[in-house]
Amino acid sequence: MPSEFNLIEKYFTHPAPKTDLGVGDDAALIQVKEGYQLAISTDTLVAGTHFFHAADAADIGWKSLAVNLSDMAAMGAHPKWATLAIALPEVNEAWLGKFSHGFFNCADAFNIDLIGGDTTRGPLNISITIMGEVPIGKALRRDSAQCGDEIWVSGELGNAALGLAHIEGEVQLPSNVLQTSLQALHRPQPRVNLGLALSCFAHSAIDISDGLLSDLGHILTASKLGAEIQLSTIPCSEFTQTHLTTLPLKCMLAGGDDYELCFTAPVNARDAILAISKKIGLNLSRIGCITAMQGLCLLDDNKMKIDLELTGYDHFA
Ligand code: ADP
Ligand code: MG
Prior knowledge:
By secondary structure, this protein is α+β, with helices and mostly antiparallel strands. Helix content is 36%, strand content 24%. It has 11 helices and 10 strands. It has a 6-stranded mixed β-sheet. Helix 3 links the parallel strand 2 and strand 3. Helix 2 packs parallel to helix 6. The radius of gyration is 20 Å and the shape is globular. The mean pLDDT is 95. The structure holds adenosine-5'-diphosphate and magnesium ion (MG).
């Protein structure tokens, strides 16, 4: 049976070029660039709650880091370092090999150094702390939306939740839709480039992990403002567009695990934002605007308020 130290050496030790002292000592040592703040965030994934026990270990490895990177993206921070605290019910080297592979695939794709962590026995649980740099005062905060800002969303919403609904037998997706939905669910793509590019233009941002209505709601609460959004402008897949019945609608407005960014920016930043969209090859959609009156209004194409209870949305609350 390999010791804890063998496991750390074999599965969690990887070159860390941005780090003064990495895995192996009592603590890691890093340096933040002059003129920058350290942005820090932690997210935990618990087996049975955030992923199925039988889920592919490489997917779990990817996703556990990707969801943390998404928080850096939402702050407009440049992610650089991560620590990994993992509890394992048993030493399963096949599982660890796959997990480590998926984790470092994501770490390498985004240039992240794993600088330390903790390895213990216990119910499967993965807790990652991510650290990144952001120029002092330039972070994209939730509390800084301004009245009149336009509200934007990246990519498409609802795909991951649709994939989950399929797995749970709530819907039967055609195979091409299923493929993109499962990809969105298992291999989310954190919008790090977008967050970095937005830091000069956007007033506020959040990553959509719990559904658009809930996460945009956090910006509104923190900024003490309201919003009007137009249902038909919310970006979604063709499948969702043509099946705007209760389940796909619920996935798009309130599904989890999108990891797209929702941000607000002044009207005069519109061209710059569209140029960013083109440059990074990611669709950015304008879905509404920030209002002085608090609360979130969902509107149809005639600017009439949509009663969410009528759409069935409320039944899922
Ligand atoms: P200590 O007993 O001083 O807390 P540990 O035995 O927990 O040290 O860890 C030894 C070294 O390995 C430390 O540098 C720690 O950060 C690192 N480490 C432990 N587990 C992990 C892991 N899952 N991923 C990355 N580094 C780890
Ligand atoms: Mg320790």
